[in-house]
Fold:
Amino acid sequence: MTDLSDLIRQRIADAGPVSVAEFMGVALTHADGGYYVTRDPFGAAGDFTTAPEISQMFGELIGLWCAVAWQSMGGPESVRLVELGPGRGTLMTDALRAARAVPAFGRAIRPHLVEISPPLRAAQQAALDGLDLPHAPQWHATLEEVPLGPSIVIANEFFDALPIRQFERTEEGWRERLIDADPAGGLCFTLSRKEAARLGPAPEGSVQEICPEGTETTAAIGRRLAAFGGAALIIDYGHAESALGDTLQAVRDHEFASLLDAPGEADLTAHVDFEALSNAAQVAGARAHGPVPQGHFLMALGLEDRARTLLATADAARREEIAGARHRLVHPDEMGLLFKVLALTSPDLPPPAGFEGI
Structure:
């Protein structure tokens, strides 16, 4: 594995300080040492736990949401079920199992997983091997590689890990935050000498974050939905409306870690700007619905009923596990409020399940 600290310092020596986005790109996705490329970061033994790993109920409800979306599309004989950043494949596996409740939808699904990590691709393959699927899953490095056609796209905790740029309001105006080498041989934050011209007024010391890759990806989804029909579901933590603030963080072993120490050894994420994603999709021709809090969305889809069904045949230990998972997924003090859900559809479709009346 490449020492990413040395690689970043060499880039700085060659061309000057790097942007936060470039640092994140190297730390997370470098082919030889990037965080997501070299490990399985999920679960108790990893660095963080996502909703599909908390309970099967999450993926099952997403699968049923997809089935209803497919029906609203007119039930095409072939539909691409695309997941961006599928983790261990848990969500896709649970969704495909739930899809069997609508047999015609199950037959129509062509699973496509967009994943760059070899270890995670292997985990996804292992998870899906237990399902008797009518169409074999396909893997891609980018969304652009997925064949065009009617699509349902799922992105759970995908956008928060895309590289961001940060800007700080100084007495002289907006300056981009950069990362430089410090005299002790480590890395440190600094500010560009050039003014960032397109940012609005804000108090001195304010920080603004933008995620060009996030808006570009959402625009690409929007163009696909507008041209070929379909729906998308983006689930992540962040703010419903664009806002100022420094939200970049590093997580390792389920605890916050230093941002600049040991790049490639910790997860780096930032809050998702759902307003920016929504605007990008609508400019590309799609309709946007929400965002709504994750707790509201899951309860609208029937989480309570699904939990009761599972509880009916569970032993005492399992009952405690199900109740704990329900609480974690929907309670405002857990994932229920901070995590939000944005739906995108082709212009001809009605509001999808969980977004009626919004």
